[in-house]
Amino acid sequence: MKKALIVQGGWDGHEPKLTSKRFAEMLLDEGYEIQISDSLDCFSDLEPLMSLDLIVACWTMGTINNVYADNISKAVGAGVGIAGCHGGMCDSFRENTQWQFITGGQWVSHPGGDGIEYEVNISHGSSPITEGISDFKVKSEHYYLHIDPAVEILATTMFPLVPYYHISNKPVAMPVAWTKFWGNGRVFYTSLGHHDDVFNIPEAAKLMKNGMVWAGAGKAYALANGLTTERFENQAKMY
After folding, report:
1. What does the alpha-carbon distance between residue 63 and residue 11 come to, in Å, rounded to a whole number?
2. Residue 134 burial by CB count (10 A; 0-12/13-18/19+): exposed, middle or buried?
3. Which of 31, 161, 191, 198 has its CB surrounded by the most CB atoms within 10 Å?
4. Could you read off the pLDDT of 153-206 as tens digits, one per residue?
5. Alpha-carbon dihedral 92, 98, 172, 14, rounded to 10 degrees
């Protein structure tokens, strides 16, 4: 049976317990064994992390020490997937650049605050995550992020929608969802999820579930194809 660790906490405004419960139910439907942790101390020991198939991050702001971040890096690099939404993953630990390197982006603003209605434009291509999902509208925070250029973009939204300092620049298609790799590990993120109820939108829920399932399949793929972490180890020691 596949195993997933969901880590919930940080700022309560993002409803980490509600999103964690919802994501756990999604993964139970896929046959996962679920552990939910209210503490970052679950990252203190590398060995149990290496036994996982998936880590789901539902932790906004806060701090993480370098040992914990390094353990996550090693586990994901070995093939454990990592997935998350909104500030629960890409505004988790603002001071930890290693976490930002792993996850592929960092929140910097949401012009206009909550209640902005915008369209999510799905990018259909090579990823199975977006299969069967059409463009859809949400009313929530409109996330502006700084992005790793290595990510594969699965969905976008157009900026600007409200007057703010960035309006002086040209319009941009801001990524809403993406994937990337960290060693042998698969990474999925969506900026949707300011509140849990955004996942009452069927397309948003399907995007999140598909992303978690895809990320959680990376370890089995790496094992089946003989992929090892040896090529990363020397560089990791230098890092």
Report:
1. 12
2. exposed
3. 191
4. 999 999 999 999 999 999 999 999 999 999 999 999 999 999 999 999 999 999
5. -10
Domain CATH code at residue 169 = 3.40.50.880
Closest CA to 179 of 148, 154, 147: 154
Domain holding 216, by residue range, is 3-238
**Domain count within the chain:** 1
Residues 6+ apart with CB under 8 A from 37: 5, 6, 7, 8
Q: Cβ(176)–Cβ(192) under 8 Å?
A: yes
Q: Supply the pTM of this predicted model.
A: 0.96
DSSP-assigned letters across all residues of 86-146: THHHHTS-TT-HHHHHHH-EEEEE-TT-S-EEEEEEE--SS-GGGTT---EEEEE---EEE
What is the residue type of 227? L
Name the DSSP letter for residue 149.
Answer: T
